Amino acid sequence: MTDAEATRWLDAGEREAWLGLAGVMLLLPSVLDSQLQRDAGLSTFEYLVLAMLSEAPARTLQLKTLAALANGSLSRLSHVVTRLEKRGWVRREPSVVDGRITVAVLTDEGYAKVVASASSHVGTVREMVFDALTPAQVGQLRDISRQIMRRLDPEGRYEPPTA
Amino acid sequence: MTDAEATRWLDAGEREAWLGLAGVMLLLPSVLDSQLQRDAGLSTFEYLVLAMLSEAPARTLQLKTLAALANGSLSRLSHVVTRLEKRGWVRREPSVVDGRITVAVLTDEGYAKVVASASSHVGTVREMVFDALTPAQVGQLRDISRQIMRRLDPEGRYEPPTA
DNA sequence: CAGGGAAAGTTGAACCATCAACTTTTGTCG
DNA sequence: CGACAAAAGTTGATGGTTCAACTTTCCCTG
Asked: Which of A26, B77, B80, B104 could form a disulfide with B71 if both were Cys (CB 3.0 to 4.6 A apart)?
């Protein structure tokens, strides 16, 4: 926004919607983090990394791709993979076809960890989000978040490739 | 969720809605943070603290209250107020009526800072969120986030008192 | 085929949030 | 009235995130 344009402030309805969305954006991640930390000893990001790997072919993904799927930077992912390796849930392997590429492979222990954590995590999501909404609202939420995502990520860098 | 109950997994529609919401939850804060950091040298939380103070009577609030309004813990707020004091935007004052209470007061420099930062911040919110939505969707978003908030914060601890 | 630039990762430093322990003040209940 | 518990803040340590600098590999072009 440039200084030349006059600010279009939020009207009453927009303000209410914004306060609500801001609240959800701040509280929901912290609730999910607490639950996962308590029940599985994982952060949401760590869980996402393991979960994405568990659904990938051969439980293997290039770090670049994994970073996008988990909505995080490559640097952040690299640090996290180092930690997950130390806990024995993930293994790094260099790519044979391209020397720049490193892939992450989910170990059997890592797979077991995801399976053990998924149920209660999904339960929390259902309880906090979907149990609060009507089926019609679920559809509305899908459309609304898609449209916002198109603004936040116009290049589709964080879009799931085919999922 | 207890082990005894079977997990109700997300159906296709819910899964799409969840991926969208999760994306917004992860990306929107980082976009807002970048904008504020670049244009004003503030984090979102710091901005929220200053903004809440600017709208309060006498530009003064008890730390406990301010923490709830800004959706943060008391500890986090205490650290932030220390930083904001060093930059001259906020002043701490002990309460005369209750020795346990500390209030934060927005200085004139702090008020000027909020005014200078608000316009471009609101511009970003409008651009990323409301310009992407129809008026009907704004209403839907308000209802949806209210209902989720009621789950996340059943006691209404993070509800704005009267705003 | 040589060199420059882009792509993919890694690493260390600086910064911020969280957690637990601690201090001070107030209220309450024998 | 004395003591104990709760409330409000503060503080230091710990751990995770970000940012910028750096390495290695690959691609492309002259």
From this structure: A26
